[in-house]
Amino acid sequence: MNGIVLAIVGGIMFFLGYRIYSKYLAEKIFRLDPNYVTPANRYNDGIDFVPTNKWVLWGHHFTSVAGAAPILGPAIAVYWGWLPALLWVILGTIFAAGVHDFGTIVLSVRNKGQSVGTLANKLIGQRAKILFLFIILLLVLMVNAVFAWVIANLFISNPSSVLSVFIQIPLAILIGYRVYKRKGGMLLPSLFALVAMYAAAVLASYVPALQIDLVRYFGGEGATSLFGMSATSAAFMVWIIILMIYVYIASTLPVWKLLQPRDYINSHQLVVGLSILYLGLFFTLPQVTAPVTNTNADTPWFPLLFITIACGAISGFHGLVSSGTTSKQLANEVDARQVGYLGAVGEGALALISIIAVVTFFPSLGEFSAVYSGFEAANESGLGNFVAGAAQLATGIGIPESVASTIVSVIVVSFAATTLDSSVRLMRYIISELGEEYKIRPMTKMHVATSIAVVSSTVLTLLPEGSRGFGSGGYLLWPLFGTSNQLLAGISLLLIAIWLKRQGRNYWPALVPMAFLMFMTLWAMAQQVIFDWSGFGETDTNMLLFIFGGIILIFAIWIILTAISVLSKNNQDGIPNE
Amino acid sequence: MKSLKQIFELYDEILSLPHKQEVARELRDEDDLFLLLLYSDMLGIPNPAFYYTLELYPYIIERFHDWHLRMGMDKSPLEGIRCC
């Protein structure tokens, strides 16, 4: 079968989801009112609350939520065959992510633009807010560890991408400074920066001297290096330390200095990446060589598929963006449908092309099966396969494969670095907030909070041991990232359901995906914590993952119990729907 | 050609939304500090330039209400200005 068929089927389903289901949600469930005065209009302060054009807001929302995660998850999950991954991405986007992203905007808009954390406090109680903070803390910790691992991994496997990524930093600082001094807009300078980065990528692809290959510097693969570690392990450790020093600095600087101009350049990369991949698909028309379903899987798809693909099918992180910034800028309530639901569809489209890139990459089924030989192997090689698959699609528009793989690596690293920066910053804020909540004054200080964030993330990235020794354990964290993300999405859906119930409306469209997500998360975590990490049976004990997995499991059970008690009461407290 | 320009403008507006917001926030913080200096005499902090800053009174009075709300004071802290 041709890969483009998957894109067409996905496209049609997303279109129908938007046209039919989101319309039903808008009219019958959320009952959007064009005359409702949104917080952006009511509290217009020119900064946080600003009525914004719906297309501008949609673009901003989409670029905030799209990153490396919807690429990585599907690239691993195709291990179970293309059909399960495709179905979960499509149905998850239509029935879960769409409702979640759309619903959190509406919920926040109807509650003075407050964030889901504050609303959890109002609708469920004080304990829920603390629980919520802990889950976000866990999520950002996972994000930091996973994305630092992703970047270090790509720097080692594609050393030609390092130069471009590092060139971006001074360019971004220059642009940020220029804009701050009001010497002009960002569009042209950022396009120049992008061209400079890609020129460096092209050069580095052909000139080995420009490839910053730490493994080679440490004596090549197989050589013994620092502290008796292999060269690859030493390179991995050095990259992680460099990255962590960088994020420490990046997350303590004012955002306009580095973070925002870099985001701006990376937003171009999102457009470039999506265009290259979809155009490449159209011109190469590749055949799908992956199996429909993998009948010889060593790890069952149920329920792991639903946490392996989190972003791209449903992601709790979106709720933070929807209720944190987007809801404060919505000019008219009816725009929520387009901004929220279509934002989720955009993320789904990114996950869809990731699936297509990987399932069409291998020349034959045999080669696919050889690389995706087991779930652990899929976790380890998923990202590399996406880069190679995407590079192959890019050859369709005449880009040489070596250059294309460098550029795709640069794009993925940039996405991951943006996410890493913001999540370390977010972690810093949460640690400070918890410090205030529990009256631990040192934790409220910027450098103490940032140090806690950076050190704990470094430890979590470096400690888990994978099958290939030091540095290969990062992928073990992926299921943990998925579960904490789904848990967060579950809470947001629960808040939407409680709110709808208190309005006397049909709350099933929010409750069903919430129950589904919680069930899958609980099952997957219980399975991994008890059978894979506890040392029970034939597997080795993995204390670190056992503890983290155990915490997530307890939180999930706690939330379900809270949900049942809140939903079964006919409580009318904190009902606002102004 | 005109529609192409519109597309570029829309694209630029999408990407610069958070940056504009951040620069505006930075400027507002500077303004808030400036307003504190202007009101300092009324708040009991001696300000040698008080007679000159008083000339700015008609301009700052409009922004006074938002300012004291942002500074965490629900009611006007000054006897002389009763905005709420």
UniProtKB/TrEMBL annotation, chain A:
<dbReference type="GO" id="GO:0005886">
    <property type="term" value="C:plasma membrane"/>
</dbReference>
<comment type="similarity">
    <text>Belongs to the peptide transporter carbon starvation (CstA) (TC 2.A.114) family.</text>
</comment>
<feature type="transmembrane region" description="Helical">
    <location>
        <begin position="507"/>
        <end position="531"/>
    </location>
</feature>
<dbReference type="Pfam" id="PF02554">
    <property type="entry name" value="CstA"/>
</dbReference>
<feature type="domain" description="CstA N-terminal">
    <location>
        <begin position="378"/>
        <end position="524"/>
    </location>
</feature>
<keyword id="KW-0812">Transmembrane</keyword>
<feature type="transmembrane region" description="Helical">
    <location>
        <begin position="403"/>
        <end position="424"/>
    </location>
</feature>
<feature type="transmembrane region" description="Helical">
    <location>
        <begin position="341"/>
        <end position="362"/>
    </location>
</feature>
<feature type="transmembrane region" description="Helical">
    <location>
        <begin position="227"/>
        <end position="249"/>
    </location>
</feature>
<feature type="transmembrane region" description="Helical">
    <location>
        <begin position="543"/>
        <end position="567"/>
    </location>
</feature>
<dbReference type="InterPro" id="IPR051605">
    <property type="entry name" value="CstA"/>
</dbReference>
<feature type="transmembrane region" description="Helical">
    <location>
        <begin position="187"/>
        <end position="207"/>
    </location>
</feature>
<feature type="transmembrane region" description="Helical">
    <location>
        <begin position="270"/>
        <end position="289"/>
    </location>
</feature>
<keyword id="KW-0472">Membrane</keyword>
<feature type="transmembrane region" description="Helical">
    <location>
        <begin position="130"/>
        <end position="156"/>
    </location>
</feature>
<feature type="transmembrane region" description="Helical">
    <location>
        <begin position="88"/>
        <end position="109"/>
    </location>
</feature>
<feature type="transmembrane region" description="Helical">
    <location>
        <begin position="6"/>
        <end position="21"/>
    </location>
</feature>
<dbReference type="InterPro" id="IPR003706">
    <property type="entry name" value="CstA_N"/>
</dbReference>
<protein>
    <submittedName>
        <fullName>Carbon starvation protein</fullName>
    </submittedName>
</protein>
<feature type="transmembrane region" description="Helical">
    <location>
        <begin position="445"/>
        <end position="463"/>
    </location>
</feature>
<feature type="transmembrane region" description="Helical">
    <location>
        <begin position="301"/>
        <end position="321"/>
    </location>
</feature>
<keyword id="KW-1003">Cell membrane</keyword>
From TrEMBL, chain B:
<dbReference type="InterPro" id="IPR058303">
    <property type="entry name" value="DUF7990"/>
</dbReference>
<protein>
    <recommendedName>
        <fullName>DNA helicase</fullName>
    </recommendedName>
</protein>
<dbReference type="Pfam" id="PF25952">
    <property type="entry name" value="DUF7990"/>
</dbReference>
<dbReference type="InterPro" id="IPR047717">
    <property type="entry name" value="CC_star_Cory"/>
</dbReference>
